[in-house]
């Protein structure tokens, strides 16, 4: 067999059965192998940043890596922004990046690039294959790297001749290393802090610590000690709704975050990093917690938190404590669209087990308090701050959930323009995604940031933050991509369209004028 056949068979043997692809000439033998060997679900994206964002969303729900197929260094470069987000989300992805044939690279053909250098900016593991006989083994190592807890990006660079040369050998899956054990001293230290500090301590969660099994343990710790609990602002995937904690995140804004954290003398990090500002602001610190606060690491991001939390529960002898009911489910709001009204409407209407892909940016920062009483659901956030992930993550999440759960994409209009080709893939795959585009015809977050750094926007600046000249017609854009769409100017209209979209199997887009 040739190298490409050994690559596909090795990926399938290791459990990688989904490929998000935007192929080019250098990858044609890999494409042919995908055609000739059954078992791989191939999903076409029309731009590489859609491809990489879909792989991120897929991992968050499937909890196993997919592979991407990217065309040479420039194709990888197109996908880097959402690979940056995936790295911050700690999503496992196997990037297959085509490259010039090994003997052709010295001729410096137009698409020749420093593919290895580009890959290293976002990858935890990078390797360039050089011989078809070793490609299967290389692929097995890539899958192992991507699957290492909590997930990381593994980039396998594939020269064209390594695909087409004969001599390929299928490799067996490699065992995935166990996460590093938690230091017993860390458990003892945190237990002592919780006994003594009480309400002056904050338990800050991220990663798997915001999933339902960990929340049940954290709730017991909080009830036994009086400690407060928050999720990291950059937490990429929270399990929320009935039966889960009414978790809030550290606020995005520096002043609000500093005020929220000011009372804590101890911050216990469970898969989280010390909270810092997204940016530097004149006259403000970089950190959001008090300089006098002590940081205590229970688990690092690469450590599985459940065992540590259970050990902490045991150390404190924290009694059983059920997470309280969140109260009555909200009713759908009426009238002109507001952030609070939209949040209540989504909470009132979302089906059980829904998945929210939230790139609402500034409009959605207050959604959480109004959605705690919704049915159990998963909420996916933009973890890395590089806008343009909401639509691709929604697309990949729908596939990662086996097309069995409704995905609701709460999507700012400006960032939606970065990756609107996702709609085409949703139509092609007939995915259960309802996209709500929040159309205010501006980069509203940047208007706030402009003020935050102490600058005064004038006419030229405001023109660069305005999306209304000419206006973007999201209904026409969606229909041009094969997705049914309609416009809403009130919450009643939005609710009616949402309910109708949930009843159909394929995608639907609502342009909500805000």
**What oligomerization state is this entry in?**
single chain
Give a quick account of the main beta sheet: strands, pairing sense, barrel closure. 7 strands, mixed
Radius of gyration: 24 Å
- Tell me, rounded to a whole number, the average pLDDT: 95
User: Based on helices, strands and strand pairing, what is the structural class?
Assistant: alpha/beta
Note the overall shape. Answer: globular
> DSSP helix count?
20
How far apart are the termini? 57 Å
Detailed description of the structure:
The protein has 514 residues and is of the alpha/beta class. The chain has 20 helices and 17 strands. The strands form three sheets. A seven-stranded mixed sheet has the order 9-13-12-14-15-17-16, sandwiched between helices. β1 (18-21), α2 (28-36) and β2 (41-44) form a beta-alpha-beta unit. The model has no long low-confidence stretch (mean pLDDT 95).
Task: Describe how the helices and strands are arranged.
Elements: H1 3-13, E1 18-21, H2 28-36, E2 41-44, H3 48-62, E3 66-70, H4 72-78, H5 80-89, E4 93-99, H6 115-120, E5 125-128, H7 132-147, E6 153-159, H8 160-164, H9 184-197, E7 201-205, H10 212-225, E8 228-231, E9 237-240, H11 254-261, E10 266-270, E11 294-299, H12 305-316, H13 339-349, E12 355-359, E13 377-381, H14 390-400, E14 407-412, H15 413-416, H16 422-429, E15 433-439, H17 444-452, H18 459-464, H19 474-480, E16 484-488, H20 491-502, E17 508-513
Parallel strand pairs: 1-2, 1-3, 3-4, 4-6, 5-6, 7-8, 7-10, 10-11, 12-13, 12-14, 14-15, 15-17, 16-17
Antiparallel strand pairs: 9-13
Helix pairs in contact: 1-2, 1-7, 3-5, 3-14, 9-12, 10-12, 13-20
